[in-house]
Amino acid sequence: MRGLLASVRFALVAAGQNFTRNLAVSLAGVFTMGLIMLLVGGTLLLTHTVDAILAQQETQADEIHIYLQDQLSMRTVADYELRFSHDSRVNGVAFTSKDQAVVAAQQRGLSLQPAINTLGTNPLPASIDLHVRTLGALGQLNTEAGTLPIVDNNSGHATDYSPGVIPRLQSVITVTVWVGSVLSVVLAVISLVIIMNTIRTAVYIRRTEIEIMKLVGAGDWFVRWPFILEGVFGGVLAAAIGATAVAVAYRFVLSQANTQAFLGVSFDGRYLTAMVVLLLAFGAVLGGFGSFLGVRRFLHA
Amino acid sequence: MSLAAVMPPQVGQKPDPGMRPVISFHGVSKTYPNGTEAIRDVDLAIYQGDFCFVVGASGSGKTTLVRLLIREEVASTGRIFVDGQETTRMTRRRLPRLRRKFGIVFQDYKLLPKLTVAQNVAFALQVTKPGQRHLKEKVEETLWIVGLEDKLDTFPDELSGGEQQRVAIARALVHRPRIFLADEPTGNLDPDTSWGIVQLLLQINHRGTTVLMATHNREIVDLCRRRVIAIDSGRVVRDETEGGYLREGEATI
Ligand SMILES: Nc1ncnc2c1ncn2[C@@H]1O[C@H](COP(=O)(O)OP(=O)(O)OP(=O)(O)O)[C@@H](O)[C@H]1O
Ligand SMILES: [Mg+2]
To answer: CATH number of the domain at A63-134, please?
Structure first.
């Protein structure tokens, strides 16, 4: 136990010496890796945010609005609502009046008041809104709705169904996830190479010392630990730099996006925390493993 | 140099001659990659408690012999045993334990330039006996023995050749090794200091440590009348239990 403590202290001191003696190379390595961590973190957050936006869109995408002619009796509308509510493909039925349609449009950032003022009437139709169980039902319901006597065909569309949207959304999600994953893996490999070479330089500088240590009877781990600790320390430092930059950027971009682009994406503190922890762990593991690989060559020479 | 306080005379006796050698060479040869045959067909047995001088002209193979012992170099043919273990077959993983049995003074000292004198000595103790109690006291005591108690915080570059050599000796002694290997440990020392170091080695030998010392110092070898192993072009040409630097009757200048 005392032996272990003494060895740990020796390794810590030596790791610190390695880092400071070799300050320029160490710092260059740490900052390059910090930049990579920034990219990895940025990619993660971007993927997550796009995911969030798309998820939001998707919940809207399982809805179809069947536009109704003006001046239908409440009775007729209620009959159709009842019919749809018995349809097995339909999950929920709601009614949006012409006035409610204006409010909803305004919530999406469209201001219709000027148009209403010029026209003198409200141009938006009322609608029966169906929630479907499967997205595939949207197409069928759209076709069926076109044949109903109550629909408003003035705009050329019986519903708000637009066939391309769903597959497109899904492919955007897949592409983002793929690009993010591939990019992260590539960046991780680059980090590993950078750490390996930084540590290799440190080992090279100390090669005579290592040789002497081994001749006096030092074991592999005695020689290895200082470098591994140096790698872990550098990796964590780099991750901290990268994570800080990502967190600051995330806050800034989101506040800009929400005030200027009406994207209803909220700041996800839990995800950010999880990501920072992940980056730190990632940095430590990469740093330690990179050093291990960097020292290995010399130890076996 | 008063050593009595630090190293009281040993209580035990000389080991009995029938015991197993602590070091043995069986038909050992070493050819370096460039083709130099540094050691040729050497057979040797060294017993626990022996005090051996290894003498021979420059280039005769003394350092190579030491390198083979700690397996800094691997024998080209033959077998070497240390403490009953065949070092020539040892895996890399076992080497540290082998080397910790030795205290080694290298001909070129091999001090760590970025560590102070005290740190250089302490480091050897940390390597060989992690968690050793009273590290600082042991280091200072050992440096006091070699007369460097006032140079604790000096760096090797700031020392004279002889002082560096004494740091190397202190580093080899600090963990009280079973076998003390010294390659030309008095090469840079004046006669008085050299003699002091030899006295010290005789004392630790008296306490049971096996001592193997390669040297060119004729005076010391002749005065001590200990075992002498003479090497010439890699061959053991003489092995006497109480020999001199030169063979009896050999021409002296
Ligand atoms: N690494 C090496 N590669 C090739 N040849 C070597 C190497 N080291 C030593 N030699 C050669 O091996 C022979 C023995 O060298 P060694 O260093 O063992 O001699 P030595 O007895 O210690 O000499 P000295 O008294 O000068 O220290 C010499 O001819 C030397 O040139
Ligand atoms: Mg030599």
So the answer is: 3.30.70.3040
